[in-house]
Write a structure and sequence with these properties.
Layout: H1 3-7, H2 11-24, H3 33-51, H4 66-90, H5 94-108
């Protein structure tokens, strides 16, 4: 896959690639909602470990080494990929569900009229 094409990939395209990846390895039987959720939680734990002793960090991670940023990107990608696969296996249209949730949150948490 070319890097240019990877940058603009949609969640649906990623779900399709994940499905193809699992089928090519005969992993479909292992990709149950429970197993995918537990795997995702494990990956969230790995992201937590990266931040565990860092204290508060600045946006953009200005003081981090490139290797640390790359490691974080890999672990965040693992979380995202498991989330996409879980949604797909559960029959959830994740972009649609996320958009609906944003709209619900906009109603539930209206902007502060006094903030600038």
């Amino acid at each position: 896959m070319e890097e240019e094409a990877m940058e603009d990939i949609s969640l649906k395209e990623l779900a399709k690639k994940l499905d193809e990846f699992a089928k090519a390895r005969d992993w479909q039987n292992y990709h149950t909602p429970r197993n995918l959720l537990l795997a995702m939680v494990g990956e969230v734990g790995e992201v937590s470990e990266i931040f565990q002793w860092k204290g508060e960090v600045e946006k953009g991670l200005a003081n981090w080494e490139e290797s640390e940023k790359e490691h974080l990107g890999e672990e965040l990608s693992d979380v995202l990929l498991y989330l996409i696969r879980l949604a797909d296996i559960c029959g959830i249209d994740l972009p649609h569900a996320a958009t609906k949730k944003l709209l619900k949150n906009a109603i539930k948490y209206p902007p502060n009229p006094f903030s600038s």
